[in-house]
Amino acid sequence: MSAIAVVKLVLQIVLVLASVLLTLLILMHKGKGGGLSDMFGGGLTQNAGTSGVAEKNLNRWTVIIALIWVAIIIALGLMTKFNLV
Asked: Residue 49 is part of which domain span?
């Protein structure tokens, strides 16, 4: 197995993990009303009184994971386009 094939496999594994994590982070966001977060307990976060700091940190992590996800998609696309594997 070549080094490029190992890199591609690692990127694919990280992509799956980032996809699952990104989905969970998006679902954790405070709902604006009637969305999935309200369906799965969005009312509990309102009663718990989530702070602005927690929401900011959740937003930051969501953006960071989303940027990593996009970078991996681009890298895998370029690897496929130039037949590196």
From this structure: 3-81
